[in-house]
Design a protein that fits this description.
Elements (H helix, E strand, L loop, with lengths): L9 H16 L8 H10 L7 H16 L24 H11 L14 E7 L5 H11 L3 E3 L6 H12 L5 E7 L4 H17 L6 E6 L2 H6 L14 H10 L11 H13 L4 H32 L1
Parallel strand pairs: 1-2, 1-3, 3-4
Helix pairs in contact: 1-3, 5-10, 7-9
Length: 300
Amino acid sequence: MARREWKWTEKQFDKLNKAIQILDELADYKPLTLRQIYYQFVSKGYIENKVSEYTMLSQCLKWARINGYISWDDMEDRTRVFHDNTGFSDKDQFVTQELDCFLSRYKRNLLQSQEKYPELWIEKDALSSIFTRVARWYCVPVVVCKGFSSISFQNDFRERLSVKQDKQPLVLYFGDFDPSGVEMLDAMKTTLSDELGVSGIEFKRVALIQEDIHTYKLPHNPDALKYTDTRAKKHVLAFGEVAVELDALRPDILESKIKDAIEGELDIEAFNSEVEKYKGELDLLNNLKNRVSEFVGNSV
């Protein structure tokens, strides 16, 4: 059966070269999603912000990877997950892996001396890798809300707070600036306080805010304003016909906002003290690991 081919025109090669340039600019944040690359095209004025343009860019980047112009490692689909349930080829492979992992997953809770218990709440799973990369060092949990949250989701939060009663709970929220994205946080506040009886939580919307849209000249997403939706009417009255997705922020800007939001809530002196204790513990664990690895290696 003949393999299907893509016809590369001069216009398509121009689009490809622009995509490669964007991937180079954001090399520290690879792999990128199609949506992230698309919004960079829109922000730079390469294409209009339309569904048809998104579809054409998707096709171009699909064949760019198939034909080897762009590495498969440069892009990813964060909405699909592979669960690997395969086993080991033999016990030696298992022992080798266990020795590599032995005592390597220790992470001291660097927030244990803090007065606040912060969580990062984000609207979209597609951006979670950026948040996790930043938040991991600070030991701050990352919570993917995925739209208006269920009562089960919010009860899980209540249960997490039940073992943090000596801390001030804090939610740092990142979501789209559109009718749903703006109201999601308010809806969760209401459910937690009025229906689950949880009080004393501090909520801060970090992004997107109106200032971000103007500062970074973020492109409007017209598809988010559905005027049959009562939330859309309310949104337009309050903010005008402005709807922007969080994905439109460059990854480096988003990363900076996450870091600043976390550090702005921390007692940095107490945090650095925990870091020094952590470094000492890692040295002790590394010495122990080396001794155990040597013993096991001689025994297998």
